[in-house]
Task: inverse folding
């Protein structure tokens, strides 16, 4: 698909990195400020969608990128399930137990396993939305040929 | 109580759109409107007068906080609504490519 | 507080009615955006910043997907005069509307007024959350620690929906 005009390309070059960094910030500070895994994941996907829409891509590169994003999505959901099962290996035998010691509330490294959950759910949601968008674009590209 | 009834009127507008419209895009939009009305109703139930957002301030232990449980349910529901809408849109694109129209009455008459 | 929510809910109803009756499909999709972004303002008034952030980004992605579907098709809705089946479905819709509204008014008579905050589990979650989960954000603590199973189900629904989208939008099968 074709890209857009020069103004859009220049603005995207300046902004896309900042949006990605903001998505990572919202994900990691999920236990201190509003946000969390879901909001941060969608923001990260938004920065990738901005890059694809502004610059355009040819067909083969889009297909390779879709293979990569499905791989990350499935790996991330597997890690979430394994983190949840790891609560069964402690002495309490509780699914989803928060067994890492919680520090003082208000620090970044606190709240046990919550930051880990936030990060992996964020990766999973970002890859899901990117895969949906890429599937749409590839469908339209394949039909246009 | 008026806010509850206005929420439900939004739900009924969406329901009217799902039942009477013949265009597939209008049906998908009406389904989305029905979901939004329920999010508003759930968030209204958990509200406390004079409360603040549910982020605990450790220096002031006597604040009144808004209930976090309906907000957690609505958070889950928003993402599930996105997944449902995306899948519905994929089906609509495929139907348009195959039959050339968005109208459900004509698709039923054509039948592949 | 309640009057502000009523005004914005009224605007959302007007937007939804316009979205259903618009003749141009692109205008209808953008009118669906009115409902979504009005909901963001309602969430901010109801002191729920977590929900406002998620709703604004999800609504943007939904609008992008809908515009991608509508953009290269014929963007008109063919308004035929409703025939007998059309009148019957309109009648069924009105009857269902009246019945549902009657039972709903009966049901919310049993609720407390808006803003009284009388849910039973609220006290337990707010008082014990910081020691039990260690997180200052109560909504994240509820979503990932007290109700983690629901979050696992939600992530599974998202993965399944992506699987469905990839399967539907595939042109070349395995030969």
Result:
């Amino acid at each position: 698909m074709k890209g857009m005009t020069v103004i859009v390309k220049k603005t995207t070059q300046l902004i896309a990195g900042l949006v990605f960094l903001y998505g990572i910030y919202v994900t990691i500070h999920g236990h201190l400020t509003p946000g969390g895994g879901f909001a941060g994941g969608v923001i990260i996907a938004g920065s990738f969608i901005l890059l694809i829409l502004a610059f355009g891509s040819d067909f083969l590169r889009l297909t390779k990128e879709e293979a990569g994003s499905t791989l990350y999505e499935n790996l991330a959901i597997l890690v979430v399930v394994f983190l949840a099962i790891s609560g069964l290996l402690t002495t309490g035998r509780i699914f989803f137990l928060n067994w890492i010691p919680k520090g003082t509330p208000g620090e970044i490294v606190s709240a046990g396993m919550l930051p880990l959950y936030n990060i992996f759910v964020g990766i999973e949601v970002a890859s899901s939305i990117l895969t949906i968008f890429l599937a749409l674009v590839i469908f339209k590209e394949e039909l246009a040929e | 109580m008026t806010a509850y009834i206005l929420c439900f009127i939004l739900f009924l507008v969406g329901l009217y759109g799902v039942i009477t419209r013949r265009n597939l895009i209008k049906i998908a939009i009406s389904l989305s409107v029905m979901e939004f009305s329920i999010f508003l109703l759930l968030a209204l139930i958990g509200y406390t007068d004079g409360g603040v957002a549910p982020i605990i301030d450790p220096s002031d232990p006597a604040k009144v906080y808004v209930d976090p449980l309906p907000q957690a349910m609505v958070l889950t529901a928003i993402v599930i609504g996105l997944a449902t809408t995306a899948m519905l849109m994929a089906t609509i694109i495929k139907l348009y490519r195959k039959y050339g129209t968005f109208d459900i009455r004509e698709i039923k008459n054509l039948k592949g | 507080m309640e009057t502000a929510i009523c005004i914005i809910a009224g605007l959302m109803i007007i937007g939804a009615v316009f979205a259903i009756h618009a003749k141009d499909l692109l205008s209808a999709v953008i009118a669906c955006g009115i409902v979504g972004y009005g909901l963001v303002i309602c969430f901010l008034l109801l002191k729920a910043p977590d929900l406002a952030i998620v709703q604004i980004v999800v609504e943007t992605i939904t609008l992008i997907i809908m515009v991608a579907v509508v953009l290269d098709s014929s963007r008109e809705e063919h308004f035929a005069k409703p025939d007998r089946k059309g009148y019957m479905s309109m009648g069924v819709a009105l009857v269902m509307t009246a019945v549902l509204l009657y039972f709903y008014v009966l049901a919310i008579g049993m609720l407390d007024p808006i803003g009284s905050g009388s849910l039973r589990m609220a006290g337990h979650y707010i008082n014990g959350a910081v020691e039990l989960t260690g997180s200052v954000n109560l909504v994240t603590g509820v979503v990932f620690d007290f109700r983690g199973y629901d979050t696992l189900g939600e992530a599974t629904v998202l993965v399944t929906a992506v699987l469905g989208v990839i399967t539907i939008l595939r042109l070349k099968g395995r030969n």
